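Q: Protein A?
A:
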Amino acid sequence: MEDTLALIKPDAIRMEVWLEIIDSYRNAGLEIVKTKLMPFMEKGIAERFYQEHKGKDFFEKNISFITSGPVIALHLRGDKAIQKVRDINGTTDPKKALPGTIRQKYGKGGPENAVHGSNSNESAKRELLIIFCDE
């Protein structure tokens, strides 16, 4: 069994597709271990979350966007959970995402791509700790 993090970003919440996104993960056989509704992500948490991108041209844009509205965090568990979430989400660029993926259906581009999913075991552990550290 593998643990991973998925974030439903402010754009998906504004579009009111968050329940469909959650169902996509559950229908893939992933267990929801924990959920956390963040009415807004504090800037300090966002900076720690995206720290690996600090200094890149999109860093500030990501911070600004993820702190712009509510976020739903999901601690997911299952067989090959990280890859399953990545497959369900689709590639980061919605224009290149496969049909039927979350990002293809709801993403606009840049940070407005509806969801985040951890890309490795190391990232999942770090991200889960950052998001769920107060529990």
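Q: Protein B?
A:
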Amino acid sequence: MIAGVVVGVVVACALTHAIGKLLMGVSATDPATYTFVVVLLSAVTLLAGWIPARRATRVETVQALRTE
């Protein structure tokens, strides 16, 4: 996950000229915006993985193996 964040930030910084034309009121290299987006997407990713993992821990192992 961390490698994906690093690659995404590097690519976004490389494309600042194209991104700058689409943004209004925020610079293309605004560190607060990058930080907010990284934190938000990381939280969503962790939550998306945590919910199914929590459900899976509540299933009896033997019961799960019998159904397969």
